[in-house]
Specification:
The chain is mostly helical. It has helices at residues 2-17, 29-52, 58-65, 68-80, 86-105, 111-136, 144-166, 170-180, 184-208, 211-218. The chain has one domain (2-15, 28-218). Helix 1 runs antiparallel to helix 7 (144-166), helix 2 runs antiparallel to helix 6 and helix 9 packs across helix 10 (211-218). This is UDP-URONIC ACID TRANSPORTER 1.
């Protein structure tokens, strides 16, 4: 929630006050629905990935996450009818096969954790394709900073009640950390700004390449 709040605030300052990019208006209900869907899926992918880490070791979590390019290629074809070269699809086969082999031999395998990790991976791929559509579709495309400006507040609205329900003591924990670690008040904003830069870079790479290229780079 801190990350998305920083994305909303910094995007607004960059567009409205610094005029780095011109402000773009949402042009249609379908465009707004896509932005809202992107925000919800984004939250779901992050939360699902975090939940899976409670049940699976990081190495196995990353192994499953390596299949993201495969799901991205599938969603890209289903949603945009865009086909990659056969070499690109062939290169994804060993990755998926490797995850299947690793899953069968993983001593710390946990079914619920695997389902959450698998769902988060699929959601991450779907998010990449959807953001690619919003950044490049004719007539309704947004630049990276404007897309971040519109999706971040929606994500905050989704995460705020989830935070209050799932982490009712979050304020007390934060205050106690502030008292124990004198630089906590500085580290949290730095972390949030870094998340803003990471998300903005994510959008820029997607806009200038493709959703599949982004996920291959991330892996």
């Amino acid at each position: 929630m801190c990350h998305m709040s920083a994305c909303a605030v910094l995007s607004y300052i960059s567009i409205v006050f610094l005029n780095i990019f011109p402000l773009q208006r949402i042009k249609s209900r379908s465009q707004f629905r896509r932005i809202a869907t992107l925000s919800i899926v984004f939250c779901g992918s992050v939360v699902g990935g975090n939940i899976s880490l409670r049940y699976l070791p990081v190495s196995f979590n990353q192994a499953v996450g390596a299949t993201t390019p495969f799901f991205t290629a599938v969603f890209a074809y289903l949603m945009t009818f865009k086909r990659e070269s056969w070499i690109s699809y062939a290169a994804l086969v060993p990755v998926v096969a490797g995850v299947v082999i690793a899953s069968g031999g993983e001593p710390s395998f946990h079914l619920y954790g695997f389902i959450m990790c698998f769902s988060a991976t699929a959601a991450r791929a779907f998010k990449s394709v959807l953001q690619c559509i919003l950044l490049s579709s004719e007539g309704e495309k947004l630049n990276s900073m404007n897309l971040l400006l519109y999706m971040s507040p929606i994500a905050v609205l989704v995460l705020l009640p989830a935070t209050l329900i799932m982490e009712p003591d979050v304020l007390d924990v934060t205050i106690s950390l502030e008292m124990k670690h004198k630089f906590m008040w500085l580290l949290l904003p730095i972390n949030s700004v870094a998340a803003y830069l990471a998300n903005l870079s994510n959008f820029l790479v997607t806009k200038h390449t493709s959703a599949l290229t982004l996920q291959v780079i991330r892996q």
